[in-house]
Design a protein that fits this description.
It is a single chain. The chain has 303 residues and is of the alpha/beta class. The protein has eight helices and 13 strands. It has helices at residues 12-16, 32-43, 57-63, 100-105, 126-136, 220-236, 246-255, 278-291, and strands spanning 4-8, 47-52, 73-78, 115-119, 122-123, 145-152, 163-170, 176-188, 191-195, 201-204, 209-217, 260-265, 271-272. The strands form two sheets. Strands 1, 2, 3, 4, 6, 7, 8, 9, 10, 11 and 12 form an eleven-stranded mixed β-sheet that branches. A two-stranded antiparallel ribbon has the order 5-13. Strand 8 (176-188) and strand 9 (191-195) form a beta hairpin. Helix 2 (32-43) packs across helix 5. The radius of gyration is 19 Å and the shape is globular.
Amino acid sequence: MKPTLLILAAGLGTRYGGLKQIDPIGPNGEIIIDYSIYDAINAGFGKLVFVIRHYFESAFKEKIGSKFDNLVETAYAYQEVDACVDGFEPPKDRDKPWGTGHAILVAGDVIHGPFAVINADDYYGPSSFKIMAQFLGKEDLSGNDYAMVGYTLKDTLGKYGPVSRGVCQCDEQMFLRRITECRNIEKNATGVHYFEDDGTERFLSGNEIISRNLWGFQPSIFHHLKEHFRRFLKERGYEKNSELFIPTVVDELVGKEKATVKVLRTNDKCFGVTYRRDAAIAARCIRQLIDQGLYPENLWGQS
């Protein structure tokens, strides 16, 4: 069975102020999702699942999803505030969904085999998809054998504002031992730092292995997420901006020995378009990759 690629795109409408404003980064109007999907198909992924929101469904399918209908099987899942809450009553003033853990959970009905997860607004590189496809294609994997592609922190920091990263600790065999979701990481005159929720400043070397949410899972993750999400809603569901991050779930599974996570190292550069101004940098990076022969000038047409 070819693995599925799950693309977390529910935040695009908010992040870009509407899908019509998504900036092209390729010479023929390609956006960053195009390059990830191109690499994934070439690596052997056989199905795409987009996690989106109902309010921009038509615009998304018209601008993005429809171009893949004749290339690969596609499906959609919807990350709404009331999805998968099992009777929990969300706060009336809450419109924001519940984070990346919730985004994966809502796709449980349309994924039935091994799958990888990516953010819609990040570029991961072709080698990263190849090593993930090879891992997910192993015949000796158990139901709780997972993986993530590990990047180097200093190679993934944004230029225009703070970012969130899952900072990893691994053993000698490159199995994940801890992952900590660190928010508001940025460079300053003294180095790389971030602040914890209580205001404590923490410094990082920049050489840490981090996650950019390129995960490889088996369908068992949906059971784990359902349990974790139920507990999360009970404990934090009434907080205005609370989110369930997938690194938090994975960290607990690893700590309780309910899953193993192989960290797959890559030399690919990972960059994203978290901020609108990031698009210009991404466009220059893609131009360099095209000039190196890694991508055709027209990604979905004739090279």
